[in-house]
Structure formats: C-alpha cells, structure tokens
Amino acid sequence: MDPNRIRNIGLMAHIDAGKTTTTERILYYTGVTYKMGEVHDGTAVMDWMDQEQERGITITAAATTCYWNDYRINIIDTPGHVDFTAEVERSLRVLDGAIIVLCGVGGVEPQTEKVWYQASRYKIPRIVFINKMDRVGADYSDVVNQIEEKLGAETLLLQIPIGIEDKFAGVIDLISMKAYRYNEEFFDAEHILTVSDVPPEYLEEAEVHRETLIEKLTGLDLELMDLVLEKKQQPSEQAIKAAVRRVCLDNNGVPVVMGAAFKKKAIHNLLDAILDYLPSPADKAEIQGFVPKIEKRISRKMDEKEPFSALVFKIMTDPFVGQLVYFRVYSGVLKTGSAVYNPNKNRRIRVPRLLKMHSNKREELAEVRAGDIAATVGLNDVSTGDTLCDEKNQIVLDAIVFPEPVVSATIEPRLTSDHDRLDEVLARLSAEDPTFKVHLDSNTGQTIMAGMGELHLEVIRERMKREFNLQTRMGKPRVAYHETVRVPAVGEEKYIKQTGGKNQYGHVVMQVAPLPGPEKFKFTVRIENGVIPAEYFSAIEIGVKEAMEVGVLAGFPVLYVEATLLAGSYHEEDSTELAYKIAAAAAFKKAFREAKPILMEPIMKIEIIVQDEYLGEVIGDFNAREGKVTKMDVRNNLHIIDGLVPLSNMFGYATAIRTLSQGRANYSLEFQDYIEMPEKKMHEVLTNQLGIYTLN
C-alpha cells in the first residue's frame, strides 16, 4: 500500500478519559467489528486480558488495523495508568502520530501531562480529542485553556459543540462551516449522521472562532500568511486544512476536535481528522541509527527500496503461539520465511510467520513493507528495543529508554517444588516488560521483583496465577531506594595477586563526586599520559559501573555520581584488565564511604480531587505523609490539589482517602524524580525497615 495512505497512531490519556471506548467506536464505524464493545461490561475488544475486563482498565497496549476512506489506520490503544507507562513509552517510539484523549470535565490530568511530554520527547505530532462532551460540567473552552496553560501548546480549535452536557448533539466544523448532528438511537453510518449548514443561533459564535483559527494559522504557517496578508485572499477550505496539517506535522500547533465516544457522537469527524492532519510514514523522512561495532551514525529513508530495517517494540507471551514479537518496519520489505539479522545479539534469524494483529486475534500475512506494524512468532533471544535488519546492510536503530522501577516486593512459590518454575516464569515476564525487574537478594536469598507501582506488581502476580497456573506469595511492597554522595572524596586501591602462575597487578586512585542531573553517571580520566595505558580505561570504567550496582549503605544502586581516575601505576608484565577492574571497584567503594553517602527516595507527583466538605481532612492526612502542596485550584466546585510526596508514605493511600471522603475523592500518582532523603529518615529506614545498624 502507498505509505501516504497509512496512519500509525496511538490513543493516549489519563486513566478513565475514554481511550478504549473511543477505539471501540472507531473499530465499529470502520467495519472491523459488528458490535460495539463496552469497557464497563468487560466486552471491549482492545481490553482482551481477563484482568483488563475485570478491573475496567487497560493494562497492555493492544494493536489493531482498520480502514477509512481507502486509508489504512494502524492503532495502538495504550494504558492510562502510570504503573504501565512502559506500554506508552514503547508505543510512542514506533508511532507516527497520537490522539490525546481528554475528558471534557477533568481536562488535563496528571497522566495526560506525562504522556504529553513523552510524545514531545519523540517529536510525535498530536491531535486532541475532547471526549465526554455529554457529561455534566463539560466545558471545551476550559479544557482548551488548560491545554495552553498546563501543556504549553498552541491550540487550533477546529470544532465547537452543538448543545452542551446532556443536550450535546454534535459538532460544527469551523473549516467547512457545516453542522454534524448525531442520533445515538441509530448505529449505522447512514442514519446516525446528518450534515447541514450552521444553525443561525450558532453562526456568530462559529464565525468568531473561525476567524481566530485563521489568525493563529497565519502566525504559524508562512504559506497561509502569504495568501491572507500578501495576496489579500480569503483562504479556501483546502488551504486551511493544508495549513493545519503543516502546523501539526511541525509540532507548532495542536488541532482540537471533540465528541462523546460513549454516545457514538463525532467519531466520524475524528477519523477524518486522523487522515487530514496526522502524519503518514512518508512524512517521516528518515530513521536514525548507527553501524554496529564502529558506531558511525547513519540514517535510512522510509522507503520500500531501501534495505530492510525494523524495531522490536513489544514482546508478549501468547498461550497458543508462544512468544509474540511486535515490530515496526522502517525500510524495505520482509517476506514470510526470509532471514533477518539481529545486530544487538549478533544473530541471524529466520522469520517463520508474519502476523497482522487485531487485539489478541491474528491474521497471516505474506509480507510487510516500510510503514507497517506487524508481529511474528518463533524468534528466540530477541529483546524489546532490538533491531532487525538486512545482514549485508546492518543498522542498529536507537533503542527505547524505559524508567527505572520504584517499588519492590519479595515473591516466592507456595509449593517448594515450584521454585524452578517461578524463575522461568519471572524471566519470561521480565522479557516482556522492561520496567519489571527481578533479582536475587544475596543477603537473604529471597527473590525480589520490582515494578512501577503496587498495581503493577499485583497484575504481574495475577498473571502468574492465571496464565501459568503458578500460586505465589508476595511480600509487602518496598520502595526501591537509590544511593548517592554529597561531597567529593578520594579512594585508592592496589590489587596484587598471583593466580594460576600468572601475576595480577592493578593500582587505581579514584575520586567520587556528586553529579547534578539529568546525567546519572559520568566517568572521566584526569591522569598523566603513560601512568596507566589508555587500553585499561574501559576496564576501570566497567569496574566502577559494577560497583555502582550495589551501594555501600544498603546495597541499593548508585545514581548521580561522577567517578574520576586521578592516578595509579602500571606494571609492564603483570598488569591485566581484570586487576584494574577489581582495583577500580574497590577504590570506588572506599571513596564512596568517605563522600558522605545518602539514600535517595522516589518522589511522586500527585493530583487529588476532593469535595469542599472533605478538604480539611484530606489536606491534614496529606501533610502527615510529608506531602508538599504545590498548587491548589477550584474547578467545577471541586478542589484540585497538586503536590509532591515521598512514595514510601503512600502505600495504602487508596483506602485512606476513600475512608476520609466516604469514597468521593480520588487521586492519581506519577513518578517525578529521586531526591536526597533527610538524615533522620535515612537512619530510620536503615535501622527499622532494612535492619542495618551502621552506615559502614
């Protein structure tokens, strides 16, 4: 298919904004499904996991394909819950455009900000769909103001509503100046939608908004500016659409449309906006990467005639076909049965089957081309972020960066005989989810699993039970702390040993110093030429990095540290890479102990929405949890509290806030950053929680 007629898009938003419901309506009106699924009934096609249907939330990103006006739209429906942010991260890496779904009442909520900035990092063009315009308190102008204030985006309002709240009947398109009314009693496209001229009572408002839209576009788009200001012409409908598309693709503005997905209103307009304004694979000129081994930067055109290249962005365990590997094709063509090369693992792989995924259903394909999103099975030793490419024209595409886990807990099987099975299942689950980590505590012998939140670990444990028939016991969740230093300090270590008849000699003097973010580690060499040959520098750096995996305070990983090689010595016959690696690790730990080490704890960004009568109790409880209020606002007679709070004080908060507000208040958490812990709290954590009584 012509790449210009393909759209690879994702739906993203805060939890409960209506992403999955919107996707279900898109699938129905594009003819993929014959019946609309509902999230609250557990019948949504895209929420296919048992837990998604029971909890009413999206847990894993699901991919599907539909067709609208002879265009192919590949859709990924992503989770809104912060615990599953990895699904959003990997989806954004391979998408060309995104729909940000906002609630017409709630507006820009915390997770909206998170996904917005994730999309900005990948320079993904976006359109905003203001959903739930039929709800009491829905206000599109307030939501538009929030987009501009909270997200710093230039909005391009393309529609205004016909009626508000329960009288919402459709939208007026400000470009075509047509009214689109939807009758929710009908399901088919022929009867549900009627198009007419703008009703007289809305004409003045529509003309004002249209004028504002054209003014904004002339300031953002040179072609339209030339047409309006220089040639003094009124822009045509096609000229305005072309200008909106250019501004959207350049990420200089965000088209805003609206509707009510649950009531089946304005989905047709949203589909048209996807085709009109979001990019095709052809609009993404080149993909960046580097040549393996020599690490020379190169780029590939998104063209079928280029050598094959693709990025693995998701791995899932399917009970029927085994391990499913999702990938996005960036260049070339791949046919069933042909071989590809994985430069990350230095392996040649044969692709036995190619699949087009529709949620958890599969359709066989003969080939995939540049711009396609597809899946395959039977690929072993492939990880998320790996590149698949032509062996004769190798490229390693830029990998996906995932956040570090912030919560950990012990896990053990209920039956002693299941220990080996537990290790196998945990390995498979951690291969699927890069934010789920597993390690063995060398001190206690316990298996520790770490994730993005309590819900994340609960879902993992439930998957073990349902998908692998493995009963487990999970310990109380524990915060994943980190360690850092507060002052510079120097450590020296000589490693001299005779092993197997060969002597070992390494001598390193290392300085450790605090490193302001965002860099988490930096290794520098400040040493005279020849004191230690440059060929040993990489071994010294590896030794430092290995030492950083287990800190000296309580065995937590080390962050935000600069290690500088100051001095050392060299023995012409006995010096080896192993000796320098061991000496560097020991010198780093010596310096770390003298550099006033401190624990760092994860700080969470929180938004609490509470009624006036419960405000005092909720604020009092929040302050008791060492929370810091950063902003307070009133919206639709509700108090919106933004703040920062240590994750360690937020376990069990869902129950607490329900009790304080009789179940009427709600909140959302997302990870903000790691910060240094107060000295008193650190001693309390080391002694009471971890059972460590000294700082040495």
Number of helices: 17
Could you list the spans in which at least 5 consecutive residues all have pLDDT below 50? 692-696
Mean pLDDT: 84
Radius of gyration: 28 Å
Q: Biggest β-sheet: count, sense, barrel?
A: 7 strands, mixed
The proportion of residues in beta strands is 25-35%
Number of strands: 38
Strand order of the largest sheet: 2-3-1-4-5-11-6
Structural class, judged by helices and strands? Answer: alpha+beta
If you had to describe this structure to a student in words, what would you say it looks like?
With 696 residues, this protein is of the alpha+beta class. The chain is 28% helix and 33% strand. It contains 17 helices and 38 strands. It has a seven-stranded mixed sheet with strand order 2-3-1-4-5-11-6, sandwiched between helices. Strands 25, 26, 27, 28 and 29 form a five-stranded antiparallel sheet that branches. Helix 7 (200-220) crosses helix 8 (222-230). The longest helix has 21 residues, at 200-220. The model is unreliable at 692-696 (pLDDT under 50).
Task: List strands and helices in order, with pairings.
Elements: E1 6-12, H1 19-29, H2 50-55, E2 62-68, E3 71-77, H3 85-94, E4 97-103, H4 110-121, E5 126-131, H5 140-150, E6 155-157, E7 159-162, E8 170-173, E9 178-182, H6 189-192, E10 193-197, H7 200-220, H8 222-230, H9 237-249, E11 254-258, H10 267-277, E12 286-290, E13 297-301, E14 309-318, E15 322-331, E16 333-335, E17 339-342, E18 347-350, E19 354-358, E20 361-365, E21 367-369, E22 373-377, E23 387-389, E24 396-397, E25 407-413, H11 419-432, E26 437-440, E27 447-451, H12 454-468, E28 472-474, E29 478-479, E30 482-485, E31 489-499, E32 502-514, E33 521-525, H13 537-548, E34 561-569, H14 577-594, E35 597-610, H15 615-624, E36 628-635, E37 638-646, H16 653-661, E38 666-676, H17 679-689
Parallel strand pairs: 1-3, 1-4, 4-5, 5-11, 6-11, 33-34
Antiparallel strand pairs: 2-3, 7-8, 8-9, 9-10, 12-13, 12-24, 14-15, 14-23, 15-22, 16-21, 17-18, 19-20, 25-27, 25-28, 25-29, 26-27, 30-35, 31-32, 32-34, 35-37, 35-38, 36-37
Helix pairs in contact: 7-8, 13-14
